[in-house]
Specification:
With about 475 residues, this protein is of the alpha/beta class. The chain has helices spanning about 15-25, 160-170, 175-180, 185-205, 210-215, 250-255, 270-280, 295-305, 320-330, 355-365, 385, 395-400, 420-430, and strands at about 60-65, 70-80, 240, 285, 310-315, 335-340, 345, 350-355, 375-380, 410-415, 435-440, 450, 460-465. The longest helix has 25 residues, at about 185-205. The protein is extended, with a radius of gyration of 39 Å. This is Helicase ATP-binding domain-containing protein.
Length: about 475
């Protein structure tokens, strides 16, 4: 039987046509030259190989003047730190500034500034000069390396190396005969120690008779002033310093004679302690009850940054709270801005109010606002309601980790049960002390009423059932 033959193709094979078109240029028609590849011979210019972009200046001239007369004494050439550093190749604060259009938000192509929670790269840089004990003699993958004699120039051969190695090995050999000769002395020392311990135990037993142990009380009597057990006092940790709010601050006006903002009322003790730490540029964690006056600490941080000609960022968990704080701060401070996903108002202001997600994006995109940033205020900084949130908790944690070292963190919350534990984590992350200020009672007590009105004459019937201290049986 003859093999089955396939019918001829109706259309030509596209793959074969492409091969013939690309691999056989001689088959191209000479009359349709406009569809063919055009080529113009290029004139060689060797001078273009000599072009080189100028490197940035690494030094600058510094003027030294007479402190009394101001006369110029001399000029000194000093090195420039971060020469040639830009937002795309450096994480230092000395890099070149961004264009005005990208100052606030930054760009995804830029690298962030060096976080304060990361180790300092200058301290971890390799040493310039190493000692002889730190030098390596065996390259990776080699069995042995080059060993020089004591003069440092003569190369030792393999025989000398083996003899030297044998001498070094004999130093660690233990002579058993010496141990046998010293065996009696060692046993005598041990026997004397055991005898001394037995004699001491006999003396102690003879001094304390069993009759005296039964008569004398084991615990010294203590007068019980109150039957109510005292509350367990909170203790600080290595990085969390718990400030005592029970004692009044007597020298507050002496330590801060001119406050950044004056309040029309007398400050509470926890507010004074927090303001003192803000003046010293320390991390502050204010865990106070609702309506205790935590906003006073935020107001003072904003006013203090405006006095220092720096910036402050006020973060809140939701947009509605950001809009509310913008209206409140706008009446007290003039230079206030708002940045959310919906509105951008006065982005160059010294006080910016935004959500935590916006701040995280700015930190990752290398925003230039971070250079002048002095305080970052976290409102409602509750790890229970925010950090433990699976959807948004990591955002809050990333912001605390990515903040540079020169930024001071101010935490405001009313629902944090473990203030010292959380402050200790923040302090260990940034290697800085965190000062915790807490309140023990609510300044404005809550009162519970029972409403029994149904309309008419009983529509105003209210009975107090819970006072500020206890339940009322009369209610």
């Amino acid at each position: 039987m003859s093999p089955v033959k396939e019918p001829p193709p109706i259309l030509p094979d596209i793959e074969n046509e492409l091969k013939n078109y690309l691999l056989c240029p001689e088959n191209l028609p000479i009359h349709r030259y406009e569809r063919n590849q055009e080529f113009w011979p290029r004139k060689p210019n060797p001078k273009e190989l000599l072009y080189f972009e100028g490197s940035p200046l690494c030094t600058a001239l510094k003027v030294q003047r007479d402190p009394n007369t101001g006369e110029i004494i001399e000029f000194r050439e000093v090195p420039i730190q971060g020469a040639g550093a830009t937002a795309k190749n450096s994480m230092t604060l000395n890099r070149a500034p961004l264009p005005p259009t990208e100052t606030t938000r930054g760009s995804a192509s830029y690298v962030p500034f060096w976080p304060g929670s990361f180790p300092n790269p200058v301290l971890d840089s390799p040493k310039d000069n190493l000692s002889e004990s730190e030098l390596l003699t065996v390259p990776p993958g080699f069995r042995r390396g080059l060993i020089f004699s004591e003069d440092g120039f003569t190369l030792c051969d393999s025989k000398n190396m083996k003899e030297k190695q044998f001498v070094d090995d004999t130093k660690n050999v233990i002579n058993l005969l010496d141990i046998v000769q010293q065996e009696q002395d060692l046993l005598g020392v041990w026997e004397n120690k055991n005898r001394n311990e037995e004699e001491r135990s006999i003396m102690v037993q003879s001094e304390s008779l069993p009759e005296e142990e039964e008569i004398l009380p084991r615990e010294s009597p203590v007068l019980k002033i109150s039957a109510v057990p005292p509350q367990n006092a909170l203790r600080g940790s290595e990085w969390a310093i718990l400030l005592d709010t029970t004692k009044p601050v007597t020298n507050f006006k002496e330590r801060i004679p001119e406050m950044a903002i004056k309040f029309p009322f007398e400050l509470d003790t926890f507010q004074k302690l927090a303001i003192l730490q803000l003046e010293q540029h320390n991390h502050v964690f204010v865990a106070a009850h609702t309506s205790a006056g935590k906003t006073v600490v935020a107001d003072y941080a904003i006013a203090l940054s405006q006095r220092h000609m720096t910036r402050t960022i006020y973060t809140s968990p939701i947009k509605a709270l950001s809009n509310q704080k913008y209206r409140d701060f706008k009446t007290a401070f003039k230079d206030v801005g708002l940045i959310t996903g919906d509105f951008q108002i006065n982005q160059t202001a010294s006080c910016l109010i935004m959500t935590t997600e916006i701040l995280r994006t700015m930190l990752y995109c290398g925003s230039d606002i971070t250079r002048d940033l002095e305080y970052v205020i976290f409102d409602e900084a509750s790890p229970v309601h925010y950090i433990n949130d699976r959807e948004r908790g990591h955002v809050w944690e990333q912001v605390l980790i990515m903040l540079p070292a020169h930024v001071c963190v101010v935490l405001l919350s009313a629902t944090v049960p473990n203030t010292v534990e959380f402050a200790d984590w923040l302090g260990r992350t940034h290697q800085r002390k965190v000062y915790v200020v807490t309140t023990f009672k609510r300044p404005v007590p809550l009162q519970h009423y029972l409403y029994t009105g149904k309309g008419g004459g009983s529509r105003d019937n209210r009975f107090k059932i819970l006072d500020a201290d206890k339940w009322l049986m009369s209610g």
